[in-house]
Design a protein that fits this description.
With 371 residues, the chain is α/β, with parallel strands linked by helices. It folds into two domains: 15-129, Rossmann fold (3-Layer(aba) Sandwich), CATH 3.40.50; 164-171 and 224-370, Hnrnp arginine n-methyltransferase1 (Distorted Sandwich), CATH 2.70.160.11. Helices cover 26% and strands 33% of the residues. The chain is built from eight helices and 15 strands. The strands form three sheets. Strands 6, 7, 8, 10, 11 and 12 form a six-stranded antiparallel β-sheet that branches. A five-stranded parallel β-sheet has the order 3-2-1-4-5, sandwiched between helices. Strands 9-13-14-15 form a four-stranded antiparallel β-sheet, with no helix packed on it. Strand 10 and strand 11 form a beta hairpin. Helix 3 (38-49) packs parallel to helix 4 and helix 7 runs antiparallel to helix 8 (208-220). The longest helix has 27 residues, at 174-200. The protein is globular. It starts with 14 loop residues before the first helix and ends with a strand.
Length: 371
C-alpha cells in the first residue's frame, strides 16, 4: 500500500475511551449493521456518485473510515488520493477490503485518531459518517471538526455539510409498559427488603430512596430507541437545531439549546405521552464547490423500509402531559454531553401547554438520559 503521503502514526485512543467507545467498531458485525442500512449507505453512495465533479482528481480525507466503504465510493468517483483514517483494528480489515477491490493504489489507510493525524497535503473533501442518536451522541463530531480545521483546504467540501435536529409530539403504547415496569420494580424491591429482613434480620430500608431514584432514572428518565411511524405523531415535526458543518466550532457542539413550539393537531387528542427526536443531514457542498444534486439522509419516523439503524429517540412523559387537539406546547431544550461519560447525552426540557383557547395549561420541567 502506498505510504508517500502520510507520516507514520501511533495515535491510539486512551484505554478508557477504547473500552467505552472505540472497541465496538472493531467488530465486523457492527460494521455490517451500518453497511446493510441501505438508507444510510445509499445516501452516502448517491451523494458521492451523483456529484463526481467534487471528487474527480481530488484529495479526500475519510474520518472514522471503518471498513473503508466511503473511501471506496470516493475513489470510484475519481479521487486522486483518499486517506482513510481509522483508530481501531478495523483499519487492517479496511486494507484487505480496499486491496480486494483493486483500489489500494488510490486509498491509503492510516491507523490513528484524527487528532494525531499527520499528512503531507490538505484535503479538498472530507467525508465522514459521525452521527449518533440525537445527532451528537458518541461525540465523534468533535474529532471531525478538529480534522476539518487542520486538514480541509479553503473552500473545501464537507460531506455531509449540514445537520438538523427535530422533535414531534407522540402517542405510543410503550409508555404504559415503561410505567408498569417501573411500578413492578419498586414493588419487587420492597418485597425483597421485607424478605431479607425476615430471613437474615438484615435491614435494607436505608437504600429505599436511592433505589427509587435509580429505578425512576432507568425506566422513566431515559430515552428509548424506537422505530415510529407517522401515525404515532399527533402533530407535525419542529426543527429545533441546525448546524453548518462547514463552519461550526467545537464549542458550538458541546451543547445544543433551543426554544420551540409543538402543535397538537391529531383529532381527538387529549394528552401526549412524550416527544420523538431525530436528525437529518444534507450533502450540499460548499459555496465555492456546490453539488449538482443535493442529497438528504433523514432518520425520522416513517415506513419500516425507510428506517435507519439510528431509529429515533422517544422522550416519554410520566405522567402524560394533558394537551388537546388545537393546543400547543411551548418549550425549551438543552442537549448536552453528560459528565459521567462525554460520549453519552442528556436532555433537559421545560414545557408549557397552551390550550386551544389560548389559556395556560400545565407547565413541567423534565430531563432524560440518552444512553
Amino acid at each position: 500500500m502506498a505510504s508517500d503521503g502520510a507520516a507514520p502514526n501511533a495515535g491510539k485512543p486512551s484505554e478508557g475511551d477504547f473500552h467505552s467507545y472505540f472497541c465496538t467498531y472493531e467488530f465486523i458485525y457492527h460494521q455490517k449493521q451500518m453497511i446493510e442500512d441501505q438508507v444510510r449507505t445509499g445516501a452516502y453512495h448517491a451523494a458521492i456518485m451523483r456529484n463526481k465533479h467534487l471528487f474527480k482528481d481530488k484529495v479526500v480525507l475519510d474520518i472514522g473510515a471503518g471498513t473503508g466503504i466511503l473511501s471506496i465510493f470516493a475513489a470510484k468517483a475519481g479521487a486522486r488520493k483518499v486517506y482513510a483514517v481509522e483508530a481501531t483494528a478495523m483499519a487492517e480489515r479496511a486494507k484487505l477490503i480496499i486491496a480486494a477491490n483493486g483500489l489500494d493504489g488510490q486509498i491509503e489507510v492510516v491507523r490513528t485518531m484524527v487528532e494525531q493525524l499527520e499528512l503531507e497535503e490538505k484535503a479538498d473533501v472530507i467525508i465522514s459518517e459521525w452521527m449518533g442518536y440525537m445527532l451528537l451522541r458518541e461525540a465523534m463530531l468533535d474529532s471531525v471538526v478538529k480534522g476539518r480545521d487542520k486538514w480541509l483546504k479553503e473552500g473545501g467540501v464537507m460531506f455531509p455539510s449540514h445537520a438538523n435536529v427535530y422533535l414531534a409530539p407522540i402517542r405510543w403504547g410503550t409508555h404504559e409498559r415503561q410505567s408498569d415496569q417501573h411500578d413492578d420494580a419498586i414493588e419487587d424491591w420492597y418485597g425483597f427488603v421485607d424478605e431479607t429482613k425476615a430471613l437474615y434480620d438484615l435491614d435494607l430500608n436505608c437504600l429505599n430512596e436511592q433505589f427509587e431514584e435509580e429505578t425512576k432514572e432507568y425506566f422513566l428518565q431515559t430515552s428509548h430507541w424506537c422505530e415510529l411511524e407517522k401515525h404515532h405523531m399527533v402533530g407535525p415535526a419542529t426543527k429545533i437545531n441546525s448546524l453548518d458543518l462547514r463552519s461550526c466550532s467545537v464549542d458550538d457542539i458541546q451543547e445544543l439549546r433551543s426554544e420551540f413550539e409543538l402543535s397538537v393537531t391529531a383529532p381527538g387528542t387529549d394528552h401526549i405521552q412524550g416527544m420523538v427526536g431525530w436528525f437529518d443531514v444534507d450533502f450540499d457542498g460548499s459555496d465555492q464547490n456546490p453539488v449538482e444534486e443535493k442529497i438528504t439522509l433523514t432518520t425520522g419516523p416513517g415506513p419500516r423500509a425507510e428506517q435507519t439503524h439510528w431509529g429515533q429517540m422517544a422522550f416519554l412523559l410520566h405522567p402524560p402531559l394533558p394537551v388537546s387537539s388545537g393546543g400547543k406546547i411551548k418549550g425549551s431544550a438543552r442537549i448536552y454531553k453528560r459528565g459521567d461519560n462525554m460520549r453519552l447525552l442528556g436532555m433537559d426540557s421545560s414545557l408549557k401547554v397552551e390550550k386551544p383557547d389560548g389559556s395556560a395549561g400545565e407547565a413541567r420541567k423534565v430531563k432524560w438520559n440518552v444512553d
